[in-house]
## 1
Amino acid sequence: MTATTLQTKLAEAREAGRAALIGYLPAGFPDPDSSVRVIQAMVEGGCDVIEVGLPYSDPMMDGPTIQRAADRALAAGTTTEDVFRVVEATAATGAAAVVMSYWNPIERYGVERFAANLAKAGGAGVITPDLIPEEAGAWTAASEASGLDRIFLVAPSSTDRRLAMTTAACSGFVYAASLMGVTGTRTQVADTAATLVRRTREVTRESGLPVCVGLGISTAAQAAEVAAYADGVIVGAGFCQRILDAPDLETGLTAVRSFAEELAGGVRDR
Amino acid sequence: MSHAGPLPDHGGHYGRFGGRFAPEALIAALDEVEAEWEKAKNDPAYQAELAALLKDYTGRPSALSEARNFSEHCGGARVLLKREDLNHTGSHKINNVLGQALLTRRMGKTRVIAETGAGQHGVATATACALLGLECVIYMGEEDTRRQALNVARMRMLGAEVVPVTIGSRTLKDAINEAFRDWVANVDRTHYLFGTVAGPHPFPKLVRDLHFVVGEEARAQVLERVGRLPDAVAACVGGGSNAMAVFAAFIPDESVALYGFEAGGDGADTPRTAASITAGSPGVFHGARTFVLQDEFGQTLPSHSISAGLDYPAVGPEHAYLADTGRASYEPITDAEAMEAFRLLCRTEGIIPAIESAHALAGARKLGERLGPDAVILVNLSGRGDKDVDTAAAYFGLVDTEGQA
């Protein structure tokens, strides 16, 4: 199988001796057209990969910042079809586009249809925060058929057996949750992050599956700290917060671009 | 007490429903709860402690009352009420709560969190935590804290911290989201004391097993009283814990028809409803595959019911399975039908039921008309209506706008 754009981006970063910068934004935040512009600013600032969030009414894994962003996107009328349009625009920037979605909207849309339409839009894969491999039979088949990466999560509470099972089910990368908690900024990187990455590396030695770390990373210094041991650094709430705080879109775009630049410096300063 | 059938399978599935759609971070905790429950239910010491609490603290077995006057409004069918309203804290919820609180202690955890809608599960949880010396945090939608201010005071009186949830629709579903967020961050010392037969495996099974006693008692009581099994068993269904409570022991009895009465709100064919089996479609919600009120893109639709305890846009996965296989039937009851049954039971039997339970009573009236005077109908009267007096007084115009009699 040919490499997905996600796999290519992560391989390029690895060859350059740095971690990849992965930025998250809900599609449709603050509205569908503006979200494309925010993502363009994230890529201009240095994001290698964009996680396009599918805004969902019941985001169980998200803290208040991303909840608010997703609420805004839904209030702006964002649908799954808009998500594909945002993915298409993201892929056009040259960055790799993956979708981050709770499972129900995908199941409701139709798993095969979702996979096919995402691939058609230029998406590289899907991160599924509430889908574990044991429940992913239909998704595994559909993602294989459409050539999409499957990104499951591992957590500090994952047993060694589950780390092996989950990483074996992943392609593209495995999302390592840095801490036991929900999305949102933290003052420091949890000490559970390095331990989890080390444990995950032990079960991915043969496959070489990239390990990217998310949850609670929101400064260049934190990005640099995580980049020292991870293949990718995932930042979400920090981007959303800058749009929420900005008095208007243009100010927000400037803030997002310079935030991405800082983080891009961080992932090169491992 | 806990031998309720072969389902779910190893992964928590009831046919195509159930399972575990939860963040990886919680899988270890869910496994721990499952393993601890398997040990506890076979541990005579645990069972003895739980049985003693159910008897001496809760007041089990609960009575079976024949509602002779109310029967006249049910086509003459014999109506037998399983009086879970007489339990300590006023509903069936305490059965599950005591079992899980003891389980919390067995797991060496010191903190309990729970969600609540109407406040019944929150009050029961705060009660058990007071008794067992556990720290207690209750998540409740801000909207519900206003509607059920008295229950907020009760929980605080019992030493619980009540956290109003201000995100989303500010009702039960958002309280559950927030409780899961707390759990993932504090899982080392915290047990999420889930209040209904929904959520990721093993909660639907655990909660069912801890309520099994309700149907088990009722089955024996009906046999003793009328010399045969009932023709039908009726219960209201929101998440579905009181319905599983009374259904489970009867599932193997093929002659007994099982009826779940959902909250129809303004009508199951209107947008203002909570009838997720009647009006919803299969989806994944709060950790399980089940029937959900959702739009074409899988976004959860807001639910409506006059009863806060039934105001939930999904249902426990085993009910979805029982509906799918036809073993149980589910029908909607409108707010108006429920309130009429509420009024009737007050006037004819001197029992003020919870508005939730009034949905089962309204259902029994329909069943009685269909089945006729030879029928025996067992109704789970899941809770008492003290908490609903404000709502009912306003509904029936028993007070003026200042709340004066």
## 2
Amino acid sequence: MAKITLSGLAHSYLPHPKGPKDYALKRIDHEWEDGAAYALLGPSGCGKTTLLNMISGLLQPSEGRIFFGATDVTDMATAERNIAQVFQFPVVYDTMTVYENLAFPLRNRGVRGEAADARVREIARMIGMDDRLNDKARGLTADAKQKISLGRGMVRNDVNAILFDEPLTVIDPHMKWELRTQLKALHRQFGHTMIYVTHDQTEALTFADKVVVMTEGEVVQIGTPAELFERPAHTFVGYFIGSPGMNLLPAQVEGSVARIPAGEVALGAAYPALSGEVEIGIRPEFIRVTGDGLPVRIRRVEDVGRHKIVRADLADRAIDIMVPEGAEIPAEPRVRFEPEAINVYADGWRVAPGGEREAA
Amino acid sequence: MNDKPVNHRAWFMVLPVVALVAFSAALPLMTVVNYSVQDTFGNNQFFWAGADWFEKTLTDPRIHNAFLRQILFSSIILAIEVPLGVFIALNMPKKGVWASACLILMALPLLIPWNVVGTIWQIFGRVDIGLLGRTLAGLGIDYNYTQNPIDAWVTIIVMDVWHWTSLVALLAYAGLRSIPDAYYQAAKIDQASRWAVFRYIELPKMKGVLLIAILLRFMDSFMIYTEPFVVTGGGPGNSTTLLSIDLVKMALGQFDLGPAAAFSIIYFLVILLLSWVFYTVMTAEDAKESKR
């Protein structure tokens, strides 16, 4: 196990990249703490799999270095890096039994005999497959195969990190929950560094200690699920995370007041004069439907069980509001934003109250 | 199930197919069956012969020998073409211009008519004018496929390998291309050796297409006629007289319609039986596993 350091890492699939548009992954400098669970979250094609493949060594970065602990592994082959990877589609050796599958990485490293046997049985117990050791891997369900992939990774006790590339894509919904819970438990128990690539925010937020949000080859924010929810560093994070996402309204900010087309909104703090395209962002959870405030026109109310989502127009801008189940919506609805929950953005990036723009 | 309407007029719908199959397969086969149980001395007069021709065919040492030669031939070409085809497929480029070039090059022998293949090798191997024959003679190697049975065998086997290994290679290549990259990546991470990758990933994934390749090559080689006929004509002596060459000699050379018809039917049944055995044995493992 080791800390993973990405130093000036960037990748382009073109031989001679010219502008930033040619990069599948734009320059990233970051340290991944030893033993933490990370999730790489972003839409398809955002570069998260590219980043993962560079860490695992399946892809050679065009710029920058990767360190595991103090060792520069940039030029090392996958096998030398001692990482494990669980792929999108379950990869098992069909003709082998569950036991042989789990023992395979050990055998290839020359570990045999009782030590190997004990380790295989231990791992099988951990992933809950100890009663099916003699079954052929071919006949297993997708979730059992993914467990074997994971087990094959963990069977080596010197593994530096376990990488997951959208591992729950082909798993039935009811098994997803179980696998994720099991993964979390294994992480707590053994403390492997885990990096989990997904485009599903629920998976990312429930799995990871820290979520790395990416879009268009760029890391826009690294933070805990709470940080991503309360203080999205970029408007992309605001609307990508949350269901529905953050409401963004063009505004003029003067001190602690934001002027939007519908009226004035009080902010939680005072801001300096801002240049560029200024927006305020407020999550649907922090808008209250009341008798006073800014007038809205309600288009539709969706009842999603525990709460209702109100789709409304606030002076020609569509906004989403989340109201508790059973809450009354007045005949002439007006809304109020919770000042503390409003974030201010300039050119897409969050502006800290009274301070500078944030960057990832 | 019982409330389904029953309408026997639906049988009329299959009538065209029944008629077609009758004319294309069943009727010609029946004439052979007809000949096989009768004897004739000309003048279109036939006498009932019962199972005589079958008994004679089954006990005829000439046919036994042809049968053994046939088994030997099929075994040898399978033993060469399957591993060689897989080896070629493993070493073919995966993508790019060279992949296409290789595919076209590999497909070429498959596109040449059989008698042309025979003629090519017949000339190629000739000691007086053939490139191969002259070269071997020039190197001091005593090679003459018209006189030496071993040379004749080597020639027709090399010819068949040249003609048909491509088929195995192309099928194996298709099987290999269908393996997702993740398998190779996982194998790298597991530090699997090249042999382990072949044994545990590539071979299991190629199994389906290889089964087809082996079946096709077995059936085809067991029925082979044109190429060895053009090259050696079954000689020298009877050394390369394979089953179908022997059959044609019997039916058209000697005009022994009865024995030839019995021979044909037995030949057909043997191919059917062996193909079935091949298929059953090779799919038995799958069936065993799916029962678990």
